[in-house]
Structures are given as structure tokens and as C-alpha cells.
Design the sequence.
């Protein structure tokens, strides 16, 4: 019984590994029952370039977007002030993510993960009433959850 379970789990694992290593070209060229057949005529370098592009995209943490910077400062109390500003923001806007960055010598508090400038600007108009020194910045933002 244990051997049968082991073999079954090994087979399932190999199926998942094969499915993950398939490229878009493999999936398009496959001949599944009940569907048409696609033939791709291309230079061999195209598949290589697509593969490299896919690998590079896996390494990128986030995508281009916008955040609102509500604080930046340096000095002895900058970290404590950044924490205070972030906590104050989180009390008022608990539905928007906030981040503390340290880019020597500045501590910065940035908020939001906006995919376009329009959404960021709408939020900026609201947030700037409570944080008048706020401004928009372009940054890599986290994927939507």
C-alpha cells in the first residue's frame, strides 16, 4: 500500500513539473482532442528570447506604478518620526498599504500600490488634506492581492 501511494505521488509530481516547464509554444503546438491544430513557423531565436524575457520577469519584484510619499526626513529622530507618521496614516487609511523606506540618509514613508497615475492622483487629493507635504512618486509597486 505504501509503495502504491509512493508511486502515485511520484507520478503526480512529475505531471506538475512537466506542466510548469511547458512554454506557450508547446501549449499552442499540442494536439488536444476536440480542438484545432496550430502550426508555428518561426526563427529558433524567438523561443529563446521569449524564454529569457519570462525568466527576467520572474526576477522583478513588482511592476511600474505610483505611490504617494507622505514623509521624508533625516536626523536623529527621523526613524521615530517616520514610524509616527506611518501609524497616523494607518489609523486614518487602513485600507491603503504603507511602507517605510530607508535610502541613506533619508527615511521615507510611501503609501499605496497604484497601477496608474489617475488612481494615485485621486488618492493623493484625499491624503494631501491630512498630509499636506505629500507628493506622487513613480516606483515599482506590489501586485494586487
Sequence:
Amino acid at each position: 500500500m505504501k509503495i502504491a501511494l509512493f508511486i502515485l505521488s511520484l507520478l503526480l509530481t512529475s505531471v506538475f513539473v512537466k506542466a510548469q516547464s511547458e512554454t506557450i509554444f508547446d501549449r499552442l503546438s499540442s494536439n488536444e482532442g476536440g480542438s484545432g491544430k496550430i502550426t508555428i513557423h518561426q526563427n529558433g531565436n524567438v523561443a529563446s528570447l521569449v524564454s529569457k524575457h519570462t525568466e527576467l520577469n520572474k526576477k522583478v519584484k513588482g511592476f511600474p506604478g505610483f505611490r504617494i510619499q507622505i514623509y521624508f526626513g533625516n536626523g536623529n529622530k527621523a526613524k521615530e518620526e517616520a514610524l509616527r507618521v506611518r501609524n497616523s496614516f494607518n489609523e486614518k487609511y487602513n485600507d491603503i498599504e504603507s511602507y517605510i523606506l530607508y535610502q541613506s540618509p533619508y527615511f521615507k514613508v510611501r503609501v499605496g500600490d497604484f497601477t496608474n497615475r489617475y488612481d494615485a492622483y485621486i488618492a493623493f487629493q484625499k491624503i494631501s488634506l491630512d498630509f499636506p507635504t505629500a507628493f506622487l512618486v513613480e516606483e515599482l509597486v506590489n501586485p494586487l492581492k
About this structure: The first strand starts at residue 63 and ends at 73.
